[in-house]
Design a protein that fits this description.
840 residues; mainly beta; 22-stranded antiparallel beta barrel; 5-stranded mixed β-sheet; 8 helices
Length: 840
């Protein structure tokens, strides 16, 4: 049980000026008061006799109260400290409409600390594995009671490799919402219009949850002639200018999605889920004028259809948690490409992926400093890929498959723990290993080890080392070749921009990649400053035989792969074979540090409707007080003893005991004094996060006999230049009485590519800002009284790239090559979007 000091001084609002920020949010609501089960500690069974202490524990100083908050059911039990925690008010301040949008907004916090960029974090719901991201994608943020972000090492406890951060979503036990969302947006330079319509239904109750979602998105075409491009004063440049109206920068596109997820509780500790999604995208691009001139453009028509499904069952077997998950997906693409003279190429591909895994995790028994915890996973994945490329009379087919059985295990061993009279601090070690056997590759072996030091409740340190082997994807190995003519490309060797032919597809001679990663991470919740949490991570990564798309054609790259480049006798670039290649070695190191800081202010008086002192968790909102907006839970039943009924693992939040007002309904009720978006008028909140990544080294050795490329000092492997030494990410917001705003900003320091006919190519630094302003009309009772149709609705105005900033790329003479002009590198520029969301 934690004690959290909550300052009621409105002076905290002044600190928000450091970020320019703010964000209203709509916490999901209930017609009834919060259930006692919602605040039950996770290490106790939840039933009618559960003890729920009164949050009022007395006042100690003028203007301050002390809040005693139980852990929410569904929070993670781990010795590794969270990097960030968000309560309901903090979640609502992002103004997101789904978990997918929320994760996008939280990217600076959830980006992997391993320094390899990254994919989506490991997603847990109520501390449990899920059947896949599709099972949670469209859950509205109003249904979330808490978000926890953990380092990669926590993934080992749940049967995943320590390659991505872990995000745990704690859902409200009772929630119901029907919503319709409409969006429309345009770039301020014009030329394109986007619109989207999305109805959704979500219900969470004692028997499980149901989520249904559909959407339609329309996007018009953006032509090259609708951007101010400065073509070169040459015959080729004049030809490019004449055909600008026959080339598209962005395609016309229509996307359709329908998906659903059903989760049912079989008993108090076992739940099953099934998820199904279908999406289709039709797109049209223009590739340039045909023989009839700009009025007769060459077209590329494409249709992609995807079916994805997943199912899972998980529960408890004694003190052990188990889960079984299966998935199947089918992706089909068909592309028609016009060629000059009336011929048409065709490309078809079909990919089926499927798999299953079983995970067991629990305690092997007590050690000298605590329980030994084991997580073991056996899995199988399969992939079938076939494609056919038809160019004139030449037909190329590809038929690929891969089956990968694997086993993975991790063992957590406590080494020191003062609670066991073993040392002054808590120290634990986690060992992990994995063996994979791809059917088309040699056996792959991965292993890792980490040490976790917990010096105090506020200060912890993690050190880890991982050794991984990774096979190239089957498409990298064997996708059918696809040739595209008329691609605009800047040639460093000649200093000219021209139209070339590119070939993409697979390379069957790629090797497996070997990785060696070391990480040192510090997490500190500053005790002197309430609400401030600091993290510092150092990463050193080395990779061998890395598989890459063909890099930027610098003189070093051309010397290393002379057979990939075709030139005319006068040196003019004609074609590039851009199929993947192996680099001999890549190494980099970086430091990433940052902080989260947030507080509440202007809260309603204790006991007032919509006030109270929160339903909080262990800590909320990156150290901020628990969320306001819920009435104080009732006192425990007479005779209920606090702390009784301990068990090794809690039942899922959705499977907890009886709830007031739940009746016999299968899913949650809407509830809450203010409707689906918020439980009556709330106080204010501000929050700011800042992360700074400093790259110390970034080098690539293409192959023996080729000079090593230093990406921080003049070399490059991609069209975007070399490595940026500094990356700064800022996000912050403030929300008060239903009105708020949020600002996110990103700065990177640019790079230089040395050499070329026109001298060095400078990629200047770039700073971009995004603004989100929104209003939760449920927090404005007077306005909704005068205009009832505004009730249960939200209006959001978003401006991406607020100052219309584009990276400037210049050669030694100060000229911007055509390929790097803003019309190509950032066709949209400043983009304005208006969203209206209504819940019923």
């Amino acid at each position: 049980m934690k004690k959290i000091r909550l300052s009621l001084s409105a002076r905290a609002l002044l600190l928000a000026g450091a970020a320019t920020v703010a964000g209203p949010a709509m916490a999901a609501a209930a017609d009834t008061l919060p259930d006692a089960a919602a605040v039950a500690p996770t290490d106790q069974p939840v039933d009618a006799d559960t003890s729920v202490p009164n949050d009022h524990e007395g006042e100690e100083e003028e203007g301050e109260i002390v809040v005693t908050a139980q852990r929410l059911a569904g929070q993670l039990e781990t010795d590794i400290a969270a990097d960030a925690e968000l309560d309901e008010a903090a979640i609502a301040s992002y103004g997101a409409s789904s978990i997918e949008e929320l994760l996008d907004a939280l990217e600076p916090m959830t980006r992997s600390g391993r320094g390899r960029g990254g994919g989506r974090p490991v997603i847990l719901v109520n501390g449990r594995r899920t059947s896949g991201f599709g099972a949670v994608r469209n859950i509205p943020p109003e249904a979330i009671a808490k978000v926890e972000v953990f380092p990669e090492e926590v993934a080992l406890q749940y049967g995943y490799a320590a390659t991505e951060r872990v995000v745990n979503f704690v859902l409200k036990p009772n929630f119901r919402q029907v919503s319709v969302e409409a969006e429309a947006g345009v770039p301020t330079q014009g030329g394109q219009f986007k619109s989207e319509l999305e109805p959704a239904f979500t219900a969470i109750g004692k028997n499980g949850r149901l989520n249904l979602n559909a959407s339609w998105e329309h996007q018009t075409m953006l032509l090259e002639s609708e951007r101010s491009l400065d073509y070169e004063d040459s015959a080729e440049g004049r030809d490019l200018a004449a055909g600008a109206s026959a080339r598209s920068l962005l395609p016309a596109k229509d996307s359709y999605v329908i998906d659903g997820t059903l989760v049912r509780n079989i008993d108090k500790v076992t739940e099953a889920s099934v998820s199904l999604r279908f999406d289709q995208t039709d797109s049209l691009s223009l590739l340039g004028p045909d023989t009839g001139g700009p009025g007769d453009p060459l077209r590329r028509d494409s249709r992609t259809q995807n079916w994805t499904s997943s199912a899972s069952v998980n529960g408890m077997l004694g003190d052990w948690r188990w889960s079984v998950t299966g998935n199947y997906a089918d992706a089909d693409t068909r592309t028609f490409t016009d060629r000059a003279g009336g011929t048409r190429d065709r490309f078809d591909s079909s990919q089926q992926s499927f798999g299953a895994n079983t995970n067991f995790s629990g305690s092997l028994g007590e050690g000298w400093a605590g329980p030994l915890r084991l997580s073991a996973t056996a899995s199988y994945s399969g992939l079938r890929f076939d494609s056919q490329s038809q160019r004139g009379a030449v037909v190329t087919t590809t038929d690929l498959s891969r089956d990968v059985p694997s086993v993975f295990g991790s063992l957590n061993v406590p080494l020191l723990d003062p609670d066991y009279n073993a040392g002054p601090i808590r120290v634990s070690a986690t060992l992990s290993g994995q063996v994979q056997k791809p059917s088309d590759f040699q056996t792959l072996k991965n292993w890792g080890a980490n040490l976790n030091f917990v010096f105090t409740d506020n200060l912890s340190l993690v050190a880890s080392f991982n050794s991984d082997e990774e096979a190239p994807s089957v498409t990298q190995l064997g996708a059918a070749p696809l040739t595209t003519e008329g691609v605009t490309y800047y040639d460093l060797k000649t200093g000219q921009t021209g139209l070339i032919t590119t070939t993409t597809g697979g390379n069957p001679f790629l090797l497996a990649e070997r990785r060696r990663d070391f990480k040192l991470g510090l997490n500190w919740e500053v005790p002197m400053v309430e609400g401030l949490r600091v993290s510092v991570n150092y990463n050193s990564n080395k990779s061998y035989d890395t598989a890459n798309g063909f890099p930027l054609l610098t003189p070093e790259i051309e010397a290393a792969f002379p057979d990939r480049v075709t030139r005319a006798p006068d040196g003019t670039l004609l074609a590039i074979d851009q199929r993947p290649v192996n680099f001999d070695r890549a190494s980099n190191s970086q430091i990433r540090w940052g902080f989260n800081f947030g507080k509440s202010f202007g809260q309603p008086e204790p006991g007032a409707r919509g006030g109270g002192e929160g339903r909080g968790g262990r800590r909320s909102g990156a150290g901020a007080p628990p969320p306001e907006g819920g009435d104080t839970p009732p006192p425990p039943p007479e005779g209920a003893a606090r702390g009784e009924g301990q068990q090794a693992a809690p039942p899922p939040a959705a499977a907890e005991g009886p709830r007031r007002g739940g009746g016999g309904r299968g899913f949650g009720r809407r509830g809450g004094g203010g409707g689906p978006f918020g439980g009556g008028q709330q106080g204010g909140r501000w929050q700011v996060s800042l992360y700074h990544t400093i790259k110390l080294t970034d080098k690539v050795l293409i192959g023996p006999g080729v000079p090593e490329l230093d990406l921080l000092h003049g070399s490059a492997t991609g069209n975007g230049g070399g490595s940026n030494r500094h990356l700064v990410e800022l996000d912050g917001g403030v929300f008060y009485k239903g009105i708020g705003a949020r600002v996110s900003a990103k700065y990177d320091s640019g790079s230089t590519v040395v050499g070329g006919a026109n001298g060095d190519l400078d990629f200047h630094d770039l700073a971009t800002f995004n603004l989100r302003v929104f209003a939760d009309f449920n927090q404005m009772p007077k306005l909704t009284g005068d205009l009832p149709f505004l009730k249960n609705s939200r209006l959001r105005l978003s401006v991406n790239n607020l100052f219309d900033a584009q990276r400037k790329v210049t050669d030694a003479s100060g000229t911007v090559p055509l390929t790097y002009q803003p019309g190509y590198t950032d066709s949209l520029g400043r983009y304005v979007e208006l969203e209206w969301r209504k819940a019923f």
